[in-house]
Amino acid sequence: MALIVHSLNNGLQKNMSKKFIAYLDILGFKDLVEKNPHEELCFLYENFVTQLYNAIALVEPVVINGREEIVFDHPKITLNSLMISDGIIIWTDDNTIESFIKIALAVRGILHILFKRGLPLRGAIVEGDIKKIDKGLLNPTDNSPTTLVGLGLVKAYETEAKQDWSGCIVDESCIKRYKEYESQFQDSVPEYGPLDIWVYQELFIEYEIPMKSGELKKEYAINWVSFSGTCQINGAMIRPMFQQHNKDCKKWDVERKIKNTIDFVEHVRKNQSSYTDPMHQVYPELEWHSRCDRSVF
Predict the structure, then answer these.
(1) Helix (H, G, I), strand (E, B), or coil: what is residue 251?
(2) Cα–Cα distances in angstroms (integers) from residue 132 to residues 52, 89, 102, 190, in the given order
(3) Where in the chain are the domains?
(4) pLDDT at position 280, please?
(5) Which residues have a Cβ under 8 Å from the Cβ of 69 and sit 6 or more positions away?
(6) Are 113 and 34 contacting, i.e. CB atoms less than 8 angstroms apart?
(7) 67: which residues sit within 8 A by CB, 6+ positions away?
(8) In the prediction, which pLDDT does 76 show?
(9) Which fold is adopted by the domain 18-293?
(10) pTM score, two decimals?
(11) Which of 41, 180, 190, 228 has a Cα-to-Cα distance from 234 of 20 to 30 A?
(12) What is the Cα–Cα distance from 48 to 42, expressed in whole angstroms?
């Protein structure tokens, strides 16, 4: 699954060992398994796998009957994924800026649509090393397991587990990578725009992410509340979605996650920017990114 790179100016020269890695955890998984019939659980997961597959597919705008539509091009999937029990791992083929935006868009779609199906997720996106070892590729009849190894995977897992909400942190390693890319364009607009443009496009948001311990500080997170230009999630939806599928929310640790998620959702709704923001007038050449940002999960 090779990545199609649009331009030679796509960030710094590729570091073939570094990738962007997302680790997502299904919150309340134990209750989900124990309190639902196996057949219902399988149906739920089959739907989940479909949504995951759509989210990592290459989204391309096409004109159908005079109208621009978004279609999923599954044969051109440019992200890798592996789902084991309550853990979802998504990773890129390289650490280009194009790959970073693609994995961020995919994660936002997964967080948003799965939440509305009663499956809150918590996740992290990091830059790091990861390698897939699959002996089965040498022999299609071989049932050897697929193995993922690398410090990047460990970092993604540990960063995900530190949070106390339903949401996804964008690790500072990713932000550093983007700012290195930005620094190359002193007298011109970067192909993928400055990082701020993706905040205005409501893909990222700076927020004091609730952690289980440690320093209180603003960091970047995926803005999964705003989707296709509108806030489709509100605070009143949070508790019912945590409770859906017979999950038990009468625990202090779950209550903290619910309250922290409500605070985040209300913060986003209160501070939602507009797609007609002046930032878009400053960078009109980035309009095609706006088109690719829409989704129909």
Answers:
(1) coil
(2) 19, 11, 20, 32
(3) 18-293
(4) 42
(5) 61, 62, 63
(6) no
(7) none
(8) 57
(9) Alpha-Beta Plaits (3.30.70)
(10) 0.82
(11) 41
(12) 10
Six token digits for residue 56: 């990592």
Distances (CA, A) of 41 to 31, 46, 66, 111: 11, 9, 41, 19
Residue whose structure tokens are 């992200």 = 79
Q: Which amino acid is at 275?
A: Y
**pLDDT tens column, 64-120:** 565 544 455 555 567 999 988 899 999 999 999 999 999 999 999 899 989 999 999
**Whats the size of the chain, residue-wise?**
297
Identify how many contiguous H helices and E strands the chain contains and give both numbers.
10, 13
Looking at residue 174, what is its pLDDT? 98
Q: Report the alpha-carbon distance of residue 159 to residue 150 in Å, rounded.
A: 15
Q: Is the pLDDT of residue 55 over 90?
A: no
Q: 3-state class of 27 per DSSP?
A: coil
Burial class (CB in 10 A: 0-12, 13-18, 19+), 44: middle
CA dihedral 99, 105, 110, 111 (to 10 degrees): 120
Token pair belonging to 178: 């983007």
pLDDT at residue 173 greater than cutoff 60 = yes
Give the residue, 127 or 291, on which the prediction is more confident.
Answer: 127
Rounded to whole angstroms, how far apart are CA atoms 70 and 62? 6
> Under DSSP, is residue 146 helix (H, G, I), strand (E, B) or coil?
strand
Contact predicate 261/167, CB 8 Å: yes
Where residue 57 falls (left for φ over 0; alpha for ψ -120 to 50; beta otherwise) is beta
Helix (H, G, I), strand (E, B) or coil at 33: helix
229 pLDDT higher than 70: no
